[in-house]
Amino acid sequence: MLRLTFCGIALLASTLTAQAAKVPVEAFPANSALVIRVADVDKTTVKLKELVEAVEPAQAEMASATVGGMSGTIIDNPAKLGVKKGTDWWFAAIAEKGSPKPVLIIAVESDDVAAVKDAVGDAYTYVEYENWLLYSRDAEAMKAVQACVDGKAENVSKAADMKAQMMIMKADVGIFINIQQIASQYQGEIEAARDNIDVVLDAAVAEAQGAAVPGIDMAAIMDFYSDLAKSLLDSVKDLDGCLIAMSVSKEGIQFDEYLAVKKGSATSKFLSGSQPDAMQNFAKLPANEVMYAGISLDMAKMTKWSIELMSKFFGENAAPEVEVDDVIQKLSALDMKGYVSSFGLGDVASGLFRVAAIYDVNDTSAAKEALPGMFKMVSNIDTPVMKQTMTYEGSAETIDGQAVDKMTLKQEFPTPEGADLNPQQAQAKQMQQMAMQMMYGPEGAVSRMAYLKKQVLATTGGGTEAMSALMKSAASPATSPAMDATRSKLGAEANIIILFDLPSLVAQGVEQASQFGLLPPGALSVDGIKPSYLGYALSFSESGLDAKAHIPAAQLQGLYQLGMQGFMMFQQLQGQ
């Protein structure tokens, strides 16, 4: 077994060494801010054609011909003369401080160097490295390339870790951002920006004093933004590099991103605090909604942070610190790491918002005690411009045999004492009331909570029918082929997942707009459009951030069809 392990390591090392000889990264200077790889253009063009065929077959040949015909312009060799077929193209960009634009270095494999030079022209300086020809309009940059080739200067290869190197080699287009180089080059500017944050925010507070909103602590808000901005700038020193990879297939477009972080750094420790999750509760949410989202984070810490923030912003209107500590302690005991939720559209009459959520908890009775306390933290915000009240009723209703709690949010924009509303104020107040009714329906912003065994179900909007639907879907989880197809492209686990059916949202939104006479009824239709979800996933670990995004071919097809419908509708309206 040990011998097999050593053989495997040796084989991997030899494979990587062989691969390294096939790429020109060792010739790119260490101060390269970007390194870009474009995979075999001919194969990538075929993949693009297959994708376009899946979206709109009639456009496939044109798209393929356009990309194939124009691809050579990015290497300043339109006919690709002397460039070896079936090979990758590489680029490096050097962004010197004070330079008006970055310096571009191009690297191609050539089976006829003279033909390449003749096609590209004398405006370029050339350097040969093994089977690669590198060239740039900047002669000084090519001196740096020659130094790397001669082994007299460091190259950029060490800037990317093994994971980034493997990702860039698998993608159709890969972009490596050398954050270390950029940060060191602009270190003085970063430090100056950090020093000036408070000066800028203090000036903003002083300028806004006359327009400050009573009851809201603007100084506390600016302190928050100051701390946030400084933390973001400080985190730059913890970053190593960023890799953005794009791949195309007949199934859709896939983006993979990786932000490398120095292990043991403050940013690394922060990211390692939340564990990714498979979020299997998506199957328990109502089917065919326009959006789904899932979060796997330390909810107790998030709640503590948000409540403390509210306390700073609203001062005496916020809850006492003792109450905050009590709620946080109860939430921490729940071990509630996250939740999944769905968003759907209703109608203008009963309310547009349909939100459903499922929380996993280890103790339902403790959750029933802790969650109302959390809501109470923001239940009474009373300022001269807005009054917000939140009432919580335990076991207020029984739905499908299950006791359900009810929470009602009410927002008022009161009239100053002794003053009458002028026409503009009266209209604004009426519009606000209409907006609330449109969003939530006649009963207003009412949320319902059902406490089941180790789970809390919650809905906002849709009345009792929405909670009944959530109970049924939670009791009988169902798979969704459209959702599963996208989920399979986003990794097994993540900290944040978002799934979005954009064509359905657009069509349903237009249909609701037609209720106001803004558009003709049936202006856009989802008939013939396949269900699909654009997906995004973000995962945290001590080594950095991993992000994945997938745009299914069906999503592109749906948007194309809606776009054609919209174009025809626009022409009809123009003809009226």
Q: Main beta sheet: strand number and arrangement?
A: 19 strands, antiparallel
Q: Structural class, from helix and strand content?
A: alpha+beta
Measure the end-to-end span.
Answer: 79 Å
Q: What is the mean pLDDT?
A: 83
What oligomeric state do these chains adopt?
Answer: single chain
Which outline best applies?
globular
- Strand runs, count: 19
Percent of residues in helices comes to: 40-55%
Radius of gyration: 29 Å
Provide the low-confidence segments as ranges. 1-21
Number of helices: 18
Report the β-strand fraction as a percent range.
15-25%
List the helices and strands and how they pair.
Elements: H1 2-20, E1 34-38, H2 41-55, H3 60-70, E2 89-94, E3 103-109, H4 113-120, E4 125-129, E5 132-136, H5 139-149, H6 162-170, E6 173-177, H7 179-185, H8 187-207, H9 218-235, E7 239-249, E8 252-261, H10 266-271, E9 291-296, H11 299-314, H12 321-334, E10 338-347, E11 351-360, H13 364-376, E12 380-382, E13 387-399, E14 402-412, H14 423-440, E15 445-452, E16 455-460, H15 463-475, H16 481-487, E17 496-500, H17 502-514, E18 534-541, E19 544-552, H18 553-575
Antiparallel strand pairs: 1-2, 1-6, 2-3, 3-5, 4-5, 6-7, 7-8, 8-19, 9-10, 9-17, 10-11, 11-16, 12-13, 13-14, 14-15, 15-16, 17-18, 18-19
Helix pairs in contact: 2-3, 2-18, 8-9, 11-12, 12-13, 17-18
Question: Would you kindly provide a brief summary of this structure?
Answer:
The chain is of the alpha+beta class.
Summary tags:
single chain; 576 residues; 25% strand; disordered N terminus; alpha+beta; 19 strands
